[in-house]
Amino acid sequence: MSKTYFDETHCAIGHPKSTFMQWMLTIDHKRIGIMYAAVMFTFFFVAVATAFLMRLELFAPGQQYIDGNTFNQAFTLHGVIMIFLFIVPGIPAIFGNIVMPLMIGAKDVSFPRLNWFTFWLYILGCIIAISSLWVGNGFADTGWTFYAPYSLTTGTNVIFTLVAAFVLGMASILTGLNFLVTIHRLRAPGMTFFKMPLFVWGIYATAWIQLLATPVVGITLILAIMEKYFGIGIFDPAKGGDPVLFEHLFWIYSHPAVYLMILPAFGIMSEIIPVFSRREIFGYRTIALSSASIAGIGYLVWGHHLYTSGMADIAKTVFSFLTFFVAIPTGIKFYDWIATMYKGKIVLATPMLWALGTIITFAIGGLTGVTIAMIGVDIHLQDTYYTVAHFHYAMLGGVVFLLFAGLHYWFPLVTGRMYNEPRAKIAFYLNFIGFNLLWFPMFIAGYLGMPRRYFDYLPEFQIYHQASFIGAVIFIAGLVYMFYVLIQGWVKGPKVGVNPWRATTLEWHLPSSPPPLENHSKVPYVDFDPYEYYHGEPVVKFDENMRRID
Amino acid sequence: MAHAYVPEIAVDREGNEHIVQGWQDDFYGGKLGFWLFMLTEVMMFGGMFLALAYYNTLHPQEFLEASASLNRLLGGTNTVILLVSALTMGLGLLKMRAGDVKGAKLMIWATILLATIFLVIKGFEWSAEYHHGIFLMHGEMLPESTMAFGKKLFFGMYFTMTGLHGVHIIIGIGLMLWLLKRINANKVNPQHYILYFNIALYWDIVHLIWVFVFPYYYMMGAATGGTSGH
Which domains does chain B have, with CATH numbers? Predict the structure, then answer.
């Protein structure tokens, strides 16, 4: 029985004997990825619980369980956790860490100690963010966007949240930096950029956004902190500042950030679709380059958040057109995925189900985004439930669904075991139905004028809120059941070999399952494309020394 | 080094051998990583210059007047000091690469000394401004003060940016002291000098930022105001 990465590890400092300290000090990318996953999903459920509290309050008009201020804090907490703690770092930190080095045949990331440091920086950020629930005058009530001037005048503890967002941003920058160098330097011999798996492309494009956009929001948050502590007046109109400048600086980062979330998710999709269609991916280069162009164009569209904030008409028009352009590379990806499935031998395993479900939900999320990119329509729909439904379809129905798809897809790689497939499928259907019932009514409510972030509403909106509530119950039941199935699979699922899905990329050609500490025993020479299937069978085969046999 | 790292070999179908780049001992990886980090610094200060430029277009006259009141003599001296310190740091790196460890250490100490002088002068400058009532949380900077909006924004940004730059100087001094410790432990030597290389790069970005900060804050109002500020 060979040793796996659960049995031994390298540590940042010394060689501790206790298992606990080995986990705390580990520099192994796989273990760090697992720790990220554990922390992130814990916070994910805290944020889900907060959201459910808000749904409960909104079940009927008027005040039932929580008052207006608590409601404001609840949606801020939900947003801060979901955005800064979960979805922005999510896929890169979990699967970028666990899978990306395996995919390119590396022993670890370029800077393993920096990776360890980054993880603890992330934990520090989480602690600062959450501690303001108990420290100071209560959690921030500004919404996760911290718009000035309200964030500068509110009595709640915004400082902590701003500092936390800055620290988490630092962690995000360092992760991106680490991955960029890893992808540039540590690819196996022969693996050119156009021979990399598409998930690596997604991580690569994401890393550039993390590196270039995050510092801008970092400095914006520092300016806001300086303003609050020292009164320098940058964003406060009472001192000559311009609050709209805050919105610009904030969205210069935060809009690319949504592409930062979705690009690695698209990468997961591009892994799953060819494997479960048993076909080479259609248009490899267009998918790879569309990731890069989404990252590029994504920089130039932030102004569409400010149509109603006061901006020149010409600027609005330009931003509107640029926003339409983002839909083009995204559309290219969708057509490529669908063309890949055409005439393929489709295997409807759970990861594929999640991927197919996402094609539906993300298409809705994406196309509703195009409608509100139009200036006139947006004036009507700005800050309504329509916008809320749009970004939840895109973020939850896109990024998080694909995160779950990846969770099922790489589960046997990480644990060496398999979950119960029929039960995992039931969990998917519960989630899918609950999700759509939860969010779709909000499109209608928003179109009819239901504003977001209100804790009360007119009686005619009640039917939509109640439908959403039922959807929320089903959705949460689905989530809990899904994690139950996965944990059960980890504890007592059947052991499966190194490549249960018959996939072609390098992370499925490891010497043991779960992988050993230093990954591939021998690094292969990569003179093949990542998804080579012939008549539904993988083309590339290796002997035990990772040399090709064919 | 304790144990030399031996890179792995990958063999292709023709039997040719290819060296596998590991994360250990990757000089170019370390260099690339630090260049990327420098890029984030540029983006961060770039964001502040963007805000500064925006307010400059809103209040051009007040910006000129506020700039005129800064002390160009002290600011100029600091600029020269920082440029010289970048030179000493770079010369030290050349000496290290040429095998002259002692000379390199001397140059690092010279850089630390110059950086400290920079901070002391900066301290004098700030305290003079403090006595004139333009300092954070004090006198003219208070919300109810009568200082014109443009000036308030100018000085707010001035203290934020020079303050953040000062923090970078302090971090730089810390890094150099750490570097000296590593050199004494023979962890940094003429064969493995990537740490020195990157700290020299860091020091370059610190002086480069100042090269933009100085003209924007001090020189802009030079034609309108007095010669030495307060």
Answer: 24-219 (1.20.120.80)
